[in-house]
Amino acid sequence: MKPIKEPREQTYDRGLENLIVGETGIGKIDGEEGKLWYRGYDIEELAQYSTFDEVAYLIIHGALPTSSQYERWLLELQVWHGPPVEAMTVLKWLPANTQALMLYRTMLSIAACHIPESENTRLDAQWRRPARILSWCSTLAAAAICHIRGKEPNPFNPEKLFSANFLSQSLGKEPTEYEIKVFDISMIVQAEHGVHTAALAALATISTGADLGSAVLAGMGALSGKLHGGANQLAFQNLIQHQSVEEARAWTAKRLSEGYKFPGFGHRIYKTHDPRVIILEPYVEKLLADKGDKLLWDIYRTVRDEVESKLGNKGIYINADGITGIIYHALGFPPESFRIPFLLAIQVGWMAHCLEYLSDGKMIEPGAIYTG
């Protein structure tokens, strides 16, 4: 009889909230103080002085680009702006009432079939993929949003940066400079946030020896759930239903008395004000004022203040999902497409974590306790 091996020491943590999957030099979150850094840079500084294109380079490559590196990065993004035509033409076979993220995911899966060296998972090949994925995703996501709107996307403009191009392609109109700025900042502050659920899905996939595109698709699948990627839409719909501040206040008080869990409020990490919200709020207030929609801003503040006054002592404050839906709405995105801008931002962090993990990571394979 073979000797019975002693079981290896394991930790049970339902939801894996307190387990550490590895070490990282990408992002740092201080949930007690409400601070967020990318590669050592405070996001407040990056939001003020950088573009999303620069921040994407920083997160993926580990340092802000020099002028020559930035030129090469932008050129690489421009070269790959046109995804395979098959990924675009598939839209005519897909119903317009499909969730925008599902359309986009289908298109990216088809595009991935046309990636040169798609089966090559050597580290150097993996590092060639982020720019291609970012560029393709922008065009594919814009086409998916246009499809549900019954419109055709505007053409890509090589003279524009990422946010300006995506807004123009998605919405069929030229955004103002301020609209571009607000959207770009929203992309910056959502570009990385540690190993959350979707990032873990991407990491688990890349750890098997899969390619980076497959890892992004895995993260996208996790983000399709309403508990992870859908809170921005749900939080916005809670605001837009009200016709007055008084109505919003009464509704919030009633919901609080019922123990309702407000989407867009509370965070597993932040036990104080979300730094991303602090950065975005002044921009959103001006954006809505420019649009002549001060009422929506007043309703937002009313719901925020009512909830935080009652639940702030429990560490429940408004989070980024509670405000970004307002930005997307003000810019013209339909609510059913709100997951897509968030995805375009956060996939930068996924790719960085995947590439970091590949340097010495082992296959992620947690166990389970048999109870049957």
Structure write-up:
This protein is mainly alpha-helical and 372 residues long. The protein folds into 2 domains: 27-229 and 338-358, Citrate Synthase, domain 1 (Orthogonal Bundle); 234-331, Cytochrome P450-Terp, domain 2 (Cytochrome p450-Terp, domain 2). It is 56% helix and 3% strand. The chain has 17 helices and 3 strands. The protein has helices at 43-49, 52-61, 67-79, 85-89, 100-112, 123-127, 129-149, 162-171, 177-189, 197-206, 212-223, 231-240, 245-257, 275-290, 294-311, 321-331, 339-358; strands at 27-30, 35-38, 41-42. A 3-stranded antiparallel sheet has the order 1-2-3. Helix 2 (52-61) packs parallel to helix 17 (339-358). The longest helix has 21 residues, at 129-149. It starts with 26 loop residues before the first strand and ends in a 14-residue tail after the last helix. The model has no long low-confidence stretch (mean pLDDT 89). This is Citrate synthase. Pathway: Carbohydrate metabolism; tricarboxylic acid cycle; isocitrate from oxaloacetate: step 1/2. InterPro entries: Citrate_synth-like_lrg_a-sub, Citrate_synth-like_sm_a-sub, Citrate_synthase, Citrate_synthase_AS, Citrate_synthase_bac-typ, Citrate_synthase_sf.
